[in-house]
């Protein structure tokens, strides 16, 4: 049996904390996301995450808790979630949790946009 994937990346001034723990069904991004080159930051993560077995047990919880999200990061996250949606359609149970501060209407609106466009269970979570 292959080892379950695990990625953990510390938060920096311009990149989020990232945790992907396939064994425990968690994918989490938290903090700021405005790296100089969003594809360079996100593509290795996405490449690993989309290898999840659609028939693996348990519900994958995707927690998105950005304090700031650049347009380039937003594009990378959305593209990743579209790929995850395809895995969901193949049988993987998933839940997306989008966190936002109550005063941050832009981040709430962004979450609503994701919710409207993705066919994965989605919760907007006010902090």
Task: Furnish the topology, listing elements before pairings.
Elements: E1 6-9, E2 17-21, E3 26-33, H1 38-49, E4 60-69, H2 71-89, E5 94-100, H3 105-117, E6 121-126
Parallel strand pairs: 3-4, 4-5, 5-6
Antiparallel strand pairs: 1-2, 2-3
Terminal CA distance reads: 39 Å
> Into which percent range does the helicity of residues fall?
25-40%
- CATH topology value: Transcription Regulator spoIIAA
What's the order of the H and E elements?
A: EEEHEHEHE
How many structural domains are formed by the residues? 1
**How large is the count of helical segments?**
3
Q: What is the strand tally? A: 6
Which strands sit side by side, in order, in the main sheet? 1-2-3-4-5-6
| Average pLDDT metric | 96
CATH architecture: 2-Layer Sandwich
Low-confidence residue ranges: none
Shape: globular
Describe this structure in words.
The structure is a single chain. The protein is α/β, with parallel strands linked by helices. It has a single domain, classed as Transcription Regulator spoIIAA, CATH 3.30.750. It contains three helices and six strands; from the N terminus they run βββαβαβαβ. It has helices at 38-49, 71-89, 105-117, and strands at residues 6-9, 17-21, 26-33, 60-69, 94-100, 121-126. The protein has a six-stranded mixed beta sheet with strand order 1-2-3-4-5-6, covered by helices on one side. Helix 2 (71-89) links the parallel strand 4 and strand 5. Helix 1 packs parallel to helix 2. The chain is globular, with a radius of gyration of 14 Å. The mean pLDDT is 96.
